[in-house]
Amino acid sequence: MYFIILALYNEGYGEDCISPEAVDLINKFLTLDHTKRLGANSTQEIKDHPFFKGINWETLRTQKAPIIPQQKDATDTSNFSRMNDRITDKDKEVFISALMKQMQQNPNMVIYT
Questions:
Q1: CA distances for 63 relative to 50, 52, 68, 94, angstroms
Q2: Which of 7, 29, 32, 57 is 20 to 30 A off residue 46, Cα-Cα?
């Protein structure tokens, strides 16, 4: 899934949806060498990442959540939109093209999802 997200982002797809800070955070979390991965030395490394700029970690647990979804029961998924309802044929073309390019660049990649 990581390679898929990265491939689509590198194609310019979704730049309006994901910030450069988020991409950097994902890349640093998914670093293969665990000794170089973000947070390997301390949780403070994660807290100091630019993606979390403006977060007051001291009061985070006491802040009210901005959205509290209503559930009918424990299995209610009505708060989640169906992804297939939003994917267009153009989206599928871009996705397949980006995935194929990523597979050519990383022939040993394994897709788990």
A1: 21, 15, 12, 40
A2: 7
